[in-house]
Amino acid sequence: MNGEEVTDEHLISAYVAGDERAFDELVRRYQRRVFGICLRYFRNPVDAEDAAQEVFVTLMRRAETFAGNARFSTWLYRVSVNMCSDLARRRARRPRTVALPDDADVPAEDSALAGRELDADLMAALRSLDIDQRRAVVWHDLYGLPYAEIAEREGVAVGTVKSRVFRGHARLAERLAERREPSHADRPPTG
């Protein structure tokens, strides 16, 4: 590195070998280009900035996967486009609100529930669940989030989320069965 321009490929190799300054140089070289790719994709500077940061985090974690079969810039472009696509897909699956507040009922007016006809019994049964079970069931069943994503949001293990969903379903079934059993006054006389 005697005054000659160091190639991107040398920098990525140096970073994989442990040279943190090499990574900083790659970020310096490509931050505007990556941001531009993300901005074209999202058309929103805030979302583009978030995506660009994710691209560099991914680069940091996956630098050793750069095989050198193409130019580094081509590989980084592909990583950027894939990250934008992944983020857009994840956001499309997520509710408009980040999370249900700890003390909230499942809101009927929530954008993810709009257009869904949940009967009063189901809404009451959902409200009867403890907040952890309710969030897990709502995110899994109504929002369609996978267990791993719910676990990440909640900061718990995937097995914990599966257990919450399973127990939530069991409690919902009990509550719905109780609510739908006819009372003694509603039963026709026998005999």
End-to-end Cα distance, whole Å, is: 99 Å
Taken as a percent bin, the fraction of beta residues is: under 5%
Low-confidence parts? 95-117
- Biggest sheet record: none
Structure commentary:
This protein has 191 residues and is mostly helical. Helix content is 65%, strand content 0%. The protein has helices spanning 8-16, 20-42, 45-62, 72-93, 120-128, 131-142, 147-154, 158-180. α2 crosses α4 (72-93) and α7 packs across α8 (158-180). It is elongated. Mean pLDDT is 77; it is low at 95-117.
Task: For this entry, give a set of tags.
elongated, mainly alpha, single chain, 191 residues
Task: Give a quick precis of the structure.
The chain has 191 residues and is an all-alpha fold. 65% of the residues lie in helices and 0% in strands.
List the helices and strands and how they pair.
Blueprint: H1 8-16, H2 20-42, H3 45-62, H4 72-93, H5 120-128, H6 131-142, H7 147-154, H8 158-180
